[in-house]
Specification:
globular, 6-stranded parallel beta sheet, TIM Barrel, alpha/beta, 3-stranded parallel beta sheet, 248 residues
Length: 248
């Protein structure tokens, strides 16, 4: 499996504090069946001021540490969980944002939990016009989408993709979030399942439990594509061939 969204880099955000803890997270991921992890520290969120250069350097440090400790055969790739701002298109042009996959064609985008800014759709359109597809992270945990999922549906219709957090499907974020996650899945508004892992205990980097939950809503084959075929396409710089969204 491929974990597209994981806070695996040590000492860079609210993920692991030490290199040893990051290595332990990699081992837990491997035991769960994960073979590729995209490291996605917070970027532009006003708290963790990470630059693309910092992220790339930390990825290399983790890869070097893994190679020197007889690790499992797991790949670590660079990415970022980019906080929404109205100047995202400009930040992208100036190289202040780290995209995901080959060719810089995908961007992990995190909306504020309390609400989606008024001009969000305009910014999404600008990114799409530049050939960059926003992958909206954990939409099921947005208070606005909890109340008004149709707005998110329209974003997917625009061309955006969506990623659900594994623990949302297994209920650790509460029944309300779990219900929205299931609803978005059934309406084909989710295209990736990722751990959004932060530590081995608080938010572990595992996917298998959520995968079993997703199978009950979209079937085994489609659920499995969300952790294999679809994320692999993103890493190759190709838009995954996902089902059309259903009105919500």
């Amino acid at each position: 499996m491929i974990d597209l969204h994981c806070h695996i880099l040590p000492g860079i955000d609210d993920g692991p504090e030490s290199l040893d803890e990051a290595i332990q997270m990699c081992h837990l991921s491997y035991q769960d069946g994960i073979r590729v992890i995209v490291a996605t520290p917070h970027l532009l969120n006003g708290v963790y001021q990470n630059s693309p250069e910092t992220i790339l350097n930390r990825v290399q440090e983790l890869k070097t540490a893994l190679s020197s400790t007889s690790p499992p055969p797991i790949r670590i790739l660079p990415g970022a969980d980019v906080h929404f701002s109205e100047d995202l298109p400009k930040a992208l042009e100036e190289g202040r944002i780290l995209t995901v996959g080959q060719g810089g064609k995908f961007l992990f985008l995190e909306f504020p939990f309390q609400g989606i800014p008024y001009r969000a759709e305009e910014v999404l359109f600008q990114l799409l016009s530049k050939g960059v597809t926003p992958i909206i992270t954990h939409p099921e945990r947005s208070l606005e989408i909890l109340k008004n999922p149709k707005r998110y549906y329209e974003m997917v219709r625009m061309g955006c993709l969506g990623q659900v957090t594994a623990m949302s499907l297994t209920g650790e974020f509460g029944s309300g979030v779990k219900g929205v996650a299931e609803k978005l899945l059934r309406h084909r508004l989710i295209h990736f399942i990722a751990s959004d892992g932060h530590s081995n205990h608080r938010r572990p980097p595992i996917l298998s439990s959520a995968l079993r939950r997703a199978e009950k809503m979209v079937g085994r084959e489609e659920a499995y594509r969300m952790v294999t075929e679809y994320p692999q396409a993103v890493l190759e710089g190709k838009r995954p061939d996902v089902p059309d969204p259903l009105p919500i």
